[in-house]
């Protein structure tokens, strides 16, 4: 199993998961902190949300899990939502900043 290729495919799938409030994908928003893949194909996504207490956390968690499970070679998916380091606008890609009208 080529973990780097698998990670790329996972990140591509995560780009299909939009933050429901901002309507920008979670990768370009900088919400995905880490993707770990073990030798059996189990994946752990470490990510955050734009705000603590986000009422849509469960929905985003489900969408991330379903998206990652679509990648060939992935067995189980664990989503770990963390608050440290805290998310801020500096983590956003140039694309996301332009889409939201935030100066670079």
What would your notes on this structure say?
By secondary structure, the chain is of the alpha+beta class. The chain has a single domain, classed as 2-Layer Sandwich (GMP Synthetase, Chain A, domain 3). 31% of the residues lie in helices and 15% in strands. It contains three helices and three strands. The protein has helices spanning 3-14, 57-69, 94-100; strands at 32-37, 43-47, 77-81. A three-stranded mixed sheet has the order 1-2-3, with helices on one face. α2 links the parallel β2 (43-47) and β3. The radius of gyration is 14 Å and the shape is globular. The model has no long low-confidence stretch (mean pLDDT 94).
Query: What is the CATH level 1 assignment?
Result: Alpha Beta
Assembly category: single chain
Main sheet summary: 3 strands, mixed
Tell me the number of helical segments per DSSP (H or I, 4 or more residues long).
3
Strand content: 15-25%
CATH homologous superfamily grouping: Fe-S cluster assembly (FSCA)
If strands are numbered along the chain, what order do they take across the biggest sheet?
Answer: 1-2-3
User: How much is the average pLDDT?
Assistant: 94
Given as residue ranges, the uncertain stretches (5+ residues, pLDDT < 50) are: none
Rg: 14 Å
Counting helices, strands and paired strands, the structural category is alpha+beta
The CATH architecture designation is: 2-Layer Sandwich
Distance between the termini: 38 Å
Give the fraction of residues assigned to helices: 25-40%
């Amino acid at each position: 199993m080529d973990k780097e290729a698998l990670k790329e495919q996972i990140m591509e799938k995560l780009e299909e998961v939009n933050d429901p409030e901002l309507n920008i994908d979670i990768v370009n928003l900088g919400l995905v902190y880490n993707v770990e893949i073990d030798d059996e194909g189990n994946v752990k996504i470490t990510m955050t949300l734009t705000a603590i207490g986000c009422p849509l956390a469960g929905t985003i968690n489900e969408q991330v899990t379903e998206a990652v499970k679509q990648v060939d070679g992935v067995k189980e998916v664990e989503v770990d939502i963390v608050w440290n380091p805290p998310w801020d606008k500096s983590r956003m890609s140039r694309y996301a900043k332009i889409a939201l009208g935030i100066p670079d």
